[in-house]
UniProtKB/TrEMBL annotation:
<dbReference type="InterPro" id="IPR029063">
    <property type="entry name" value="SAM-dependent_MTases_sf"/>
</dbReference>
<feature type="domain" description="Methyltransferase">
    <location>
        <begin position="44"/>
        <end position="139"/>
    </location>
</feature>
<dbReference type="Pfam" id="PF13649">
    <property type="entry name" value="Methyltransf_25"/>
</dbReference>
<protein>
    <recommendedName>
        <fullName>Methyltransferase domain-containing protein</fullName>
    </recommendedName>
</protein>
<dbReference type="InterPro" id="IPR041698">
    <property type="entry name" value="Methyltransf_25"/>
</dbReference>
Length: 254
């Protein structure tokens, strides 16, 4: 059983995410996925589509996108972003562990470390098998891994001005072991007016560290083949120590 209170992305968390990472903001992934999916002969699923940051640009590129997310608040932002641009893709409220579609996809995308929100390796294997089952023969799974830094020993605060005041995010470390496989923080979100909090949310946030070779081995274990590991959104190039992301692309056998 997965703890659904972790990595929840409630209303304030979703608002902060949308301000900090608006639709179209790229970490190199928008162009990368646009290129990797160009000419894709069939529908594409973005798992953990969030506010539509990546999904909307891929729709704009002419791809047939479906998406799901576990956060109602994030999904509402995604729907609004699509609607504002004249799109109406199939979007649904689902979780990694239990998502289900009648459609079989030509590709499934899990961008910028979202797969690392699944912190239990046994659960992850089930998720990857579910991805495999939802791909057409020859379909591709494209997954990003991000470095998970050792836990900070002191809290840190970020702020964003908004029309109705300020948004604050305080991050308090929970994990003490710098070598831990899972790094947990407690996030406190505040909406402030005139320096006074008018709304507050607290959520635990957890990410699992993955070595690319170990993750590739799990992909092989659950039935994927032809895994390509790429660094820094340079397809087929070996990752460098300073790369902010490592991408894996694997294929469901025909």
């Amino acid at each position: 059983m997965t703890d659904e209170t972790i990595n929840r992305y409630g209303s304030l968390a979703a608002w902060v995410y949308d301000v900090d990472k608006p639709v179209g903001r790229s970490f190199g992934d928008v162009d990368y996925y646009r290129d990797r999916l160009a000419g894709c002969a069939g529908p594409v699923l973005e798992a953990a589509c969030g506010n539509g940051r990546l999904l909307v640009p891929l729709l704009t590129a002419g791809l047939d996108l479906h998406g799901f997310d576990a956060s109602p608040e994030m999904l509402a932002l995604c729907r609004a972003a699509c609607r504002d641009r004249g799109f109406d893709p199939p979007l649904s409220l689902q979780r990694f562990e239990s998502f289900a579609f009648d459609t079989r996809f030509a590709a499934i995308v899990v961008a910028v470390g979202s797969i690392q929100l699944v912190t239990d390796p046994a659960v992850l294997r089930g998720v990857l098998r579910r991805f495999l089952d939802h791909l057409r023969p020859g379909g591709r799974l494209l997954v990003d891994l991000v470095p998970v830094d050792p836990p900070e020993q002191t809290a840190r605060t970020r702020r964003w001005p908004v029309a109705d005041g300020e948004l604050w995010l305080d991050e308090q470390p929970v994990t003490a072991d710098p070598a831990a496989d899972v790094v947990v923080s407690r996030l406190r979100y505040e909406h402030r007016r005139g320096g006074v909090p008018v709304a507050t949310e607290e959520e635990p946030f957890a990410l699992r560290r993955w070595d690319a070779a170990a993750f590739a081995a799990v992909l092989d274990e659950v039935g994927f083949t032809r895994t390509v590991v790429s660094g820094g959104y340079r397809f087929g190039e070996k990752p460098r120590p300073d790369d902010a992301v490592v991408s894996l692309e694997a294929v469901r056998p025909a």
